[in-house]
Amino acid sequence: MSSFSPDELTARRLAGQAPGPSMPPAPGTGDGSLVDDPAVRAPLVLNNRSFHDITEIVCGYAENKPPRWWLPAFLFASSLAGFGGLMILYLVITGIGTWGLNNQVDWAWDITNFVFWIGIGHAGTLISAILCLFKQKWRTAVNRAAEAMTIFAVICAATFPGIHIGRQWMAWFLAPLPNANGIWPNFKSPLLWDVFAISTYGTVSFLFWYMGMIPDFATLRDRADRRLRQLGDSAARIAPFVPIRTDKARAVIYGLLAVGWRFSSRHWHRYEAAYLVLAGISTPLVLSVHSIVSMDFATSILPGWHTTIFPPYFVAGAIFGGFAMVLLLLIPCRVLYAHMKDLITLRHLENMAKILLVTGMMVGFAYSMEFFIAWFGGNAFEVDVFLNRAFGPYWWAYWTMISCNVISPQVFWIKAMRRSPLVIFIVSFFITIGMWFERFVIIVSSLHRAFLPGEWHMFHPTFVDIMIFVGSCGIFLTLFLLFLRFLPVFPIAEIKAVLPQASPHADDHKKGAH
Amino acid sequence: MSVIFPKWTNALPTLLAVVVAGGATTAVGGFWYYATPKFYDVGYQPLQPGGGFNHQIHAGKLGMDCRYCHSNVEKSYEANIPSVSVCYGCHAEGRLTQFTDSPVHVEKTAFIRDAYARDESIPWRRVHKLADYVHNFPHQVHVAAGVSCYSCHGQIAGMPVVHQVQPLSMSWCLDCHANPGDALVPKDRVTDLIWVEKHLADRAAGSAEATNIGKALLESLERTPPDNCGACHY
User: Fold this and answer.
1) B169–A181: do the CB atoms touch at under 8 Å?
2) CA–CA distance, B57 with B162 (Å, rounded to integer)
3) Which of A287, A440, A452, B146 is a Cys-bridge partner for B184, taking CB atoms 3.0 to 4.6 Å apart?
4) Do the domain assignments include residue B121?
5) Domain with B185 in it
């Protein structure tokens, strides 16, 4: 491996032998090859990128003109989001009757979507917190995007409990605020724990994400500032005839976001300490948030919900669905953006495919255990609920869930499959569908038949139901596209730290030190 | 590195923290003070027909019992506003001359006789209002339990025109439902507002005699006041 130390690179640059700061990175060679020798650490960045290349590549995503597909994709996603917003407005003005809920199925798409989105976020927290504590270096390539996805998923998730309460203007009652009525939320209810769990989760995830970006904001700020000084009056304007230079706007906005970061070693020292603290705070959240979401169901006495397996089962499902969403977003990005394949390698995809396989089997185990316990527990009502789940009127939802979540990830036993981005993408798509159906099955199929046949009803989603869900996908995509366009998509410094050059012994082999 | 931000911007984070902390405190404090019934309901005193019924004269100086006019308070959910005929019972032409023949009095009460002659109600305006979702506030139950008029309406016998004294907010209701011993008075004293005011003040000041009366009343209470939602909101 022909790596060289940063000092050497600087020397070469000064001698004109190496590309200088203004030179764009050389094109990569595609997916590269995977090292299968267990004695050799697989490179985390391909094509022998230098420190400077990493800066150029990552900052390029925010600084260069966006790819041609970006604006149409953004317009499409934001119009979906806007239409979803109009549907929410219609719901607020008209009432919950615009949804397909009825007396029997009083939670349906609203809570399905809520649990679906909140689950999606868990992959981001797992990657950023747990993999950080376990020093899994491959996380550096995906953690920023996964954390961003977490925040956006939490935003989508938080919409649904807020609008499903019927009188949305009373949503502030979710918070334990002193009021003239002297009434407080029910502290014995998991629905309230949920409010605390989600808001803690959102806050900590946001802090984690933002704090990680501060050094990268400073890089973007300094680059914009340097260009501004080099180009002077010829620097581009943000729009024709508007007397604001693009780089001036960048320097100010990224500068504000960078809150005075100057790359001093004292800054880095505190940054690392804070990062570890946040990783420590986030780690229990990976397990607690979805456990508490599951208690919304598990603490009820409804057969089909009243099971102790729910917390671990929900957490496994959340990580499963979250990783599927990370892959669903990053595999296209990796194809569509220049040099991204150097940073997100097949090794990364393979690792995540393995997590999909493991967590997929965990949820498969939970599905079968629910049936086993229904039979083993000898409760006729519970047996009936589960038989109804698999063979009743919602059989199609149940078997969609089983085939997407349990059967489809099994292809990852084959090495070629978990190294094929296309296969991973397709399976991730199935898993995302399957995980949505899992929540639908849990909620609707448990509710739709109560103990008396007079209480048997079907749930039929309305146009408003469907469009609010589609709108939440639009919000998610809009935010993610904005993230790709304007923010540092990779943690620049952390990726540099996993380059071979970052090791003080990087050159030892070449110099015959062994 | 060039200077993107002037030096004073170093103060921005501190300034922001101060503004956020100050803004949050102001918002919370402002809501707590201004947006609660103890601010915006207490003191409510609408303009009344004929300048208002003078409780100070009738209930205070003349010593009329509350139940002379609010005659259904012991039987009904509502402490009724008297009909014009009740007013006319005393204020008929020439009937009060044995007490007063002041032309001012005759002039000020003319609207009663006018309304009576036209067979119309006097449009008194309600002072004490509960929210429309409070379906269930039984006056008769409270009076029978020994809750004086004074506890909710204040010293009516001293008011020339009635205004609201207590916030009538739900937490205020619940405070009393949680500690009824602070407000219960002997049943024959419920409408004796002057006595009640002094007695409850003694009890609050810790007088042994007044406290013992309160304790005895609390023990004799048949049922503890309800604190479930359905008690007031169905």
Assistant:
1) yes
2) 12
3) B146
4) no
5) 129-233
